[in-house]
Design brief:
The chain is mainly alpha-helical. The protein is built from 14 helices and no strands.
Length: 267
């Protein structure tokens, strides 16, 4: 380059060029950091895999072994570490949980988890519950609902547990017009104002519905979801069997789903 050529470059242009190169270098470095979750960090989240699997076996009776579900969840964790991008405003812990749970549910969807008539029984129980609530102004007890359906209370509890299983396995299913719930949770900080309002209203209605549960059901919901106790631990608190806690938990979730459906339908 000649002396004359040097004189034709404004000093500001050279400074801008240096800033541009620095910015590119910094971005490249940050991109490398974003893509890398090391093995030690992955290992730290293995207990989360076990926690998710424990929740799954609480909700349903999977045809796979505990070890099979842990293996599926671990694959989800590794994929989360590979694909994680913090620019999407989700912490890795949140993102990993979503991917772990999704991987386990994907594995379970390959199997038939409900008896053939389960959907029909769930629909009948839901419709009868809605009709009885409309007539009396309050939710029927499990015994009252079973009597109207002309089935035993134990059969009704099995219907409740089938409904719980169906909801748990389908909650992350995506359709063309409806993204998985996990994606919605990951994007919680990017909700539009109207979506945020709707979410807040849903939370308020859910809180109201929980308050209308009977005392034992309400306590179980709080201990399980807020205090994160296991079914076994809750059974010890109330000095009842673990299967009985599962029944009451399934009954409470069924009641909440009916309440939320009433709210949604404007009844």
């Amino acid at each position: 380059m000649t002396t004359e050529t040097k004189k034709t470059h404004p000093p500001q242009l050279a400074e801008d060029s240096r800033k541009h190169l620095k910015a590119r270098a910094r971005n490249a470095y940050n991109d490398q950091k974003k893509e890398f979750i090391d093995n030690e960090q992955i290992t730290q989240f293995i207990p989360m895999v076990h926690k998710v699997v424990q929740r799954v076996v609480t909700y349903i009776k999977p045809p796979l072994s505990y070890e099979d579900l842990v293996s599926a969840g671990t694959v989800g964790l590794i994929k989360a570490a590979r694909d994680y991008d913090p620019s999407h405003q989700a912490e890795f812990k949140t993102y990993a949980y979503i991917r772990i749970r999704g991987a386990i549910l994907d594995e379970l969807r390959n199997f038939s988890l409900l008896p053939p008539n389960a959907d029909k029984q769930i629909r009948e129980a839901t419709q009868m519950n809605l009709e009885m609530t409309k007539q009396t102004g309050k939710m029927p007890t499990d015994e009252q609902l079973a009597g109207k359906l002309q089935i035993t209370v134990d059969k009704l509890y099995q219907t409740f547990e089938n409904a719980r299983t169906k909801h748990f396995v389908s909650i992350d299913t995506s359709t063309e017009n409806s993204p998985p719930l996990g994606s919605s949770l990951a994007a919680v900080n990017t909700l539009a104002p109207d979506q945020q309002f709707e979410q807040n209203e849903l939370i308020a209605k859910l809180t109201e519905a929980i308050q209308q549960l009977n005392e034992r059901q309400r306590q179980i919901i709080i201990l399980y979801y807020q205090q994160e106790l296991t079914m076994k631990q809750i059974a010890e608190v109330f000095d009842i069997t673990e299967p009985r806690v599962s029944q009451l938990h399934a009954s409470a979730l069924f009641s909440l789903s009916v309440k939320l459906r009433q709210w949604k339908d404007g009844r």
